[in-house]
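User: I'm putting together notes for a lab meeting next week and I want to include a structural view of one of the chains we've been expressing. I don't have a solved structure, so I'd like a prediction I can at least talk through. The sequence is below, exactly as it appears in our construct file.
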Amino acid sequence: MIKEEKHIEKESKAKDKKTIIEIKGLHKTFGKNNKVLQGINLTVNKGEDLVILGRSGSGKSVTIKCIVGLIEPDKGEIKVFDESVLHLKKSELNEIRVRIGFLFQSGALYDSMSVRENLAFTLRKHKRDLSAEEIESQVIEALDSVGLSEAIDKMPSELSGGMQKRIGLARTLILKPEIILYDEPTTGLDTITSREISELILDIKHKRKTTSIIITHDMACAKLTADRIMVLKEGVIHAEGTYEELEKSEDEWVRSFFQ
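Assistant: Thanks for the context. Below is the predicted structure for the 259-residue chain, given as structure tokens.
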């Protein structure tokens, strides 16, 4: 009886695993000989935080930019929400993009706009039916979610690097995305601020039930946020597992990330 119950529980968990992102045979070459991606295959399940590790230039950022159509791959298949994004019309791709948040390395704030204006601009661009009061309410809500409501009238130049990352994340969250793609979310930050950003990523996952891909060199961030880790080498997925599994890998090159 106990064995039967365990079997049913495993089957139930398997059914709960819904693939949200699926990439097959992704290739991308820049110029004549710079083969960055040489057949990437990966899946991300609903509610999962997947961390992608790799040396500089290994194609980590290229992979997630292909997902949202910022870079067009040479070959391969990308499915998001069961839609083949490489074959969508521009209007259809934009509908998918609204459901995907992208946090750039720099935070990518508009320098000439205040924090309020940066967030409101995003809402006006994608949700044109909102009133001024609704926009203000959602801006405040997004800033509250990253703990920076007091920065609403500041300019980006008045913010620290960590605060700019948080504001960039608030601007991403304001559209309530189902997927968030983080491109080096802790790069250039001190150890304490990096941990705060990593904890914020976890908090967002739990409160908003998001699915994420996190590109990072920061092993402390990877350890804290990853449900699963993939390691890129020479344009393909070289290894995959939990932080603990890869840390004990017999592959010396994989272990080098954890030392």
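A couple of points you could mention at the meeting. The two ends are 45 Å apart (CA to CA). Residues 28 and 74 are 5 Å apart (CA to CA).

User: Perfect, that's what I needed.
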